[in-house]
Each structure stands twice: as structure tokens, then as C-alpha cells.
Amino acid sequence: MNTMTKSTVGRSETFQDKPTRFPDTQVNGAPLKPITQVLIDRRATQHFKSDPVPEEYLEAILTFAGQAPSGYNLQPWRFVVVRERENRHRLQKAAMNQSKVSEAPVMIIAFAIKDEWKNQIDAIFDEGVRRGAGDAGIVEMQKAAATKFLDSFPAAVWLNRHTMIALTTMMLMAEAYGLDTAPIEGFDADAVRREFSLPLESEVIALLAIGYAKGPDKAYGGRLALKEYVFKEHYGGPWTLE
Amino acid sequence: MNTMTKSTVGRSETFQDKPTRFPDTQVNGAPLKPITQVLIDRRATQHFKSDPVPEEYLEAILTFAGQAPSGYNLQPWRFVVVRERENRHRLQKAAMNQSKVSEAPVMIIAFAIKDEWKNQIDAIFDEGVRRGAGDAGIVEMQKAAATKFLDSFPAAVWLNRHTMIALTTMMLMAEAYGLDTAPIEGFDADAVRREFSLPLESEVIALLAIGYAKGPDKAYGGRLALKEYVFKEHYGGPWTLE
Q1: Does the CB of B143 have a partner CB in chain A at under 8 Å?
Q2: With an 8 Å Cβ cutoff, are A36 and B17 in contact?
Q3: Residue-wise pLDDT tens digits, A191-210
Q4: For the whole prediction, is pTM greater than 0.80?
Q5: Does A217 reach chain B within 8 Å, measured CB to CB?
Q6: Alpha helix (H) residue ranges in chain A
Q7: What angle do CA B72, B161, B10 make, to 5 degrees?
Q8: B40–A67 C-beta distance less than 8 A
Q9: Which residues share a beta bridge with B231?
């Protein structure tokens, strides 16, 4: 099929279904944290112990991240998982020398490659049709509409938006499993690209440290009150309960 | 204090603590969904019933969204909650006339205002010091470093990144409460700004429909296999289990 030869990906091994096998307790055996507790407990961890993250937990966190929604299901997020000590030290140097980057047993580099969707859109739309999510009769029209939208939209913004859905999912899953995390935006994107062989046309979006906190959390700095960031019906409309 | 007069926000009513009172069951009284189930069940809902979302659930969803992490705790996300029928129809027109936009009882417009952080950084850093999260002795130096970073970074990218953390949190909280959602990126940003009085310098980032699905979900389109989006140690490093 013409569309398959244009793709870098082939159907059979390229796609997966929803996760069915994954750890359903915290790493320490306690029940999974409810999402409310996840959101209350989550802090940007300052220092990490060296204890490793069990492989099956890491794999589940990465798999669930991939269930995030994306425009046209194009899933532009990409992740490099850095665990080797030497590589974590190289990443630390590219990340303003923050010590947590080499302390954490798992560092995730979240990035996305500009225009990579052009190589994948055929395979992804074909897979949608195969699974009954798309309609073969109009798939070419839908592909053209998606292409028109994406070609006219600032690529960096689109890639950041979507990758952050998957990265946030990853962060919250890790917390639900009783792990600690730290999202990091202080890094030299050029150095990260160079040190980890990312394509020049990639957008380096965030780093995420995953592991176990060492020492106490930093104090909670508070959050803006609801009325400062939520508005009723229009911008400036004071937020009040009904 | 000089820093307070420069802020649009004042300390006492402007900040909130972590949530302590919120619904701890689904809307139908069932236990909160575990995050694994949330991520497996979540679909971009195509059509919504008109049943309203209970006020205390909406408020909790918005409050938990505000617990998201952000660079320097600057929390740039802003949300307009659109529930009035006439306004949902106006939003539908600005959103490629997608019917779900007027069907859903709650529509969220997620946006962020360029440079608004400049009006809030003093109050937010002062609050951090007051709560023990910042150090009064170095707060001015930290503020200068934050300002230097933010002034040199593409604003649209930074605002999109952070707002998507809060929006993803909102989407997953809604699902945990047994509600259905649809994130929407097809809209005319100028029309949304105009119709909902958003500042011209705002970045309109996404819409999120919240309510109850009407009819069956669209079929699941599949996801890329782990080896397509996860790499070991460097880009291109094949993902294999240890």
C-alpha cells in the first residue's frame, strides 16, 4: 500500500492496545494512591535517594503516558530514559548542574521532533480505520484537513502542548505508585540535543526526575486563590459559587 | 511594601492552601476511579448529555488543577468556565461549530496572558518566603534569575507548557469523579478572545468539555508501541526491558 511505504512505521509491531498488565499497588505494596492524594502529596522533589525504580513500574508509567490524547491521535511525544550513571552526570551538566538530575535513578528527557508526524500520519490514520475509529471513505479528506491545520500552526507550540499531556500523565502515575518526581525546565536544549543524539529539529520540552525523595520536601509555597485564575462566563467574570 | 504596590494581587485573599474539603467519591457515589482506570477509560467524548455537573465537583476539579507545578510557582494558567447556554453557543461558533461545545454543560477555556507573571512575581515570591518555601535573604536574586529566564524564553511555548499541566490535571480529576471530557484544539483563537473578553495578548491554549457522554465512545484508535516513542539512554537507543 502506498501509504505504508511513505511511513517509517509499519502496522503490525508499531501499535499497541490499552494497557492490561501493570502493577496495581504502590512500589511498597500499599494500595495505589487516589488521585486526590497524588495531587495533594506531589512536590517538586529536591533530592533523591539512589534506590532504583523497579522495571515493571517504569514500563507501566511510560505505557500509561502513551495513552494521553492528542490531536488526530498523532502522539508527538518522545522520551529518552536515562539511567546509566555516566549519562545522568552528562545530563546534569546540560541542566544547570542541578544535583537532583544525577541523584535520581531515572531521568526522562521529554522531546518532540518537528514534522515527524508527516512520516507517521498515514500509518496512524490507517490503524484508526482498521480499529473502527476512522472511516476509510473519508480518511484521505481527514488527513488533508489535519495536514492543513498542522502546517499552519506554530510547530513548537503544538509539540509542547501535546507532550505536556503525556508528561503530566507520567508524573501523576509515578506519584500514584508512591514514587517522587521533579519536573525540570532549567536546561540547555542545545546541550541536551547534542549529548543524547536528539535530532537538530527536535523541541526539548522538559526533564522529569523519578525516584525516591531524600530528606524533607521544600515547604509548600501556596497557590493562587481560585478567583485569581478562574472566571465565570468571560474573562474578569468573578468566580462565585452558584 | 514596595513589592506589594507593584502587584495586582494582595497577600491575604490572593492565596490558598492545599485542598482539604472536596468530594471523595464519583458523582454517582461510587468510589473515586483509580488513576489506572481513569487512563484506560478516558476518551475524547463525541457527544454530551445536558445533565449539569454538580457545583462542588466543578469547584474541586478547578482547585486541584491549581495545584499543578509551575516554574517559579508562577501558575500562569487561567480558565474561563462557560455554562450559560447562550455563551456555549457562542463558543461553539468560535470552535469550528463542533456540536459537543454547546452540548457539554461545562466548557473550560484554558488560556494564559503574556507577561502577567510580571505583575504577580513579587506577591508570589513574598508568599513563598512567608510560608518558608523561599529565603528572604536571596529572594531578590532568585526573582532576578527568574525574570532573566522568562524574558529570554519564547512566551507562547512557556505558557502552553504550564497551562497544559493544569489542564491535564483537570481532565484526569474529572474522569476520576466519573465525568467525561473532551479536549479540543480546533478553535479560532481570535474569535475566542473577542467573544469572551480575553486580553489581546493572551494565548488561547485549549478548550475542555466536561459532562456526561451521550451514546457510545468512538472506537479506540490504538497507540504507538512503546519502542516507537521511548528510547534507552539516547535517541535511537532501542527500548528493551532490563
Answers
A1: no
A2: no
A3: 999 999 999 999 999 999 99
A4: yes
A5: no
A6: 2-6, 11-14, 35-41, 55-65, 85-94, 99-103, 116-130, 139-151, 155-176, 189-195, 226-229
A7: 40
A8: yes
A9: A80
